[in-house]
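Our example copied in:
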Amino acid sequence: MKASFSIFYLTPVVFATWFVGKRAGITLAVLSAAVWLYLEMTTGRSPGQTR
């Protein structure tokens, strides 16, 4: 399920990079990775994992 849920993080990064620029894409990618890591560490499971 990780691969299918990652599209929700990847799509905004692609659009930000395409329409705003490389710096915005990198910033959003780092922010998305930080949110993913935070959720993994605080809940013990990946985003999108139901059980």
Remarks:
- The chain has a mean pLDDT of 82.
- The CA atoms of residues 10 and 29 lie 8 Å apart.
- The chain has three helices and no strands.
- Residues 2-43 form one domain.
